[in-house]
Amino acid sequence: MRTLFFLSILLYFSCIGNFSFNKSNPKKRGIVIKEIIKEVPPEQRDAMEWLITYMPEADVKNLSHDYLIENSEYAFKAKNHFQWAKDLPDELFLNYVLPYSSLNERRDRWRKDFFYKFSKIVENANSAYEAAAILNNQIFTILGVEYSTKRPKADQSPYESIDAKLASCTGLSFLLIDACRSVGIPARFVGTPMWHNDSGNHSWVEIWDGVWHFTGAAEPVDDKLNQVWFSDLASNAKKGDMKYGIFAATWNYTELYFPMDWLPGVKIYNAIDVTDHYKNHIQIDSDLVTVSIRALNQEGQRESVSVIITGEDNFYFEGQSKNETHDTNDHLTVLLPKGKVFTIQSENDAKILEIENECLVSLSSK
Asked: What's the pLDDT at 258?
């Protein structure tokens, strides 16, 4: 396996030309690899060498041998324990199960803790898809963490979010990714710096089960993946655009960096442009327009109220607006036909609207 491993690395480097890597101290990496390889079982050595070869420079300097050894031990324990992980291709295991982080989040020692905490939750799951859906439905309640714009910072690590009890979509995604990886599910961080209509950014999670599936962290839709509130927004992303594209973080070197809106000047984390996956997966009728609805109280905070939409041809729709526990851009959303007139009303407010372009309608909740 070692021969194949090194051949794959050589082939990888030969195919990517003159791209400049963030690998400023190969001597230090070589020393760390040489020292730590002697401390892990033979079957883990190639993976450990891969991890250190591609890890950020700061981690080479700061992470202890014990941290890396425990991370590897429990990544392999999950690989050998769960049926969906046993036959994973090396590329998926190395890039999306073995890594201890996704981007710049604080390096918590979560691997062992999460393995024992979440293994029992997914023990009876029949697939990685099913297990990931179970985790997304349960872990945030178990850990007492919910979405809030009042979280201490955007890029919280798992334990920072657990301590704060609040997290952004970024922090929630880091947490779900690590929970998935702890039980052998390939998982990666996905996001866009800005939606096409400049309404904001968003982060979410992809997991692998034959193909990449997507889900919003702490935003489960029953036991289903690939069903999210931002489908229309994602379908309008722009491939190749570092502001309006959709990117997935990966461990090995690529020709792209992950554009972190919370650290816009940092370009050291590797990424893949996955915009096409969302443009091809999500098809929206061009004659329909996305109308988002929110209800605001006197302080400008979103509240959950009943909303009724009526219109031409006996159109009728009823739904519930979202409160502040939902993502800032997550609103009650409905697709309405262009050129038609609708009345959008709550108990305390009403708006009459002729549908022309995508819009956000604000109702008064009081």
From this structure: 98
The span from the CA of 76 to the CA of 40, in Å, is: 11
∠ CA 235-241-242, rounded to 5°: 115
Neighbours of 39 (CB within 10 A): 14
Positions of the chain with pLDDT under 70: 1-27, 282-286
Structure confidence at residue 12 (pLDDT): 41
What pLDDT does residue 8 have? 45
Round to whole Å and give the CA distance between 85 and 79. Answer: 5
CB 332 within 8 A of CB 307: yes
CATH of the domain at 312: 2.60.40
Dihedral sign (CA 310, 311, 316, 320): negative
The whole-angstrom separation of Cα 175 and Cα 234 is: 22
Regarding whether 340 and 309 lie in a shared domain, the answer is yes
**Which residues constitute the domain of residue 322?**
288-364
In this prediction, residue 280 carries a pLDDT of 78
Residue 4 burial (CB < 10 Å; 0-12/13-18/19+)?
A: exposed
pLDDT at 334: 85
Strands 146-147 and 166-167: parallel
Residues 188 and 72 in one domain: yes
Same-domain status, 162 and 33: yes
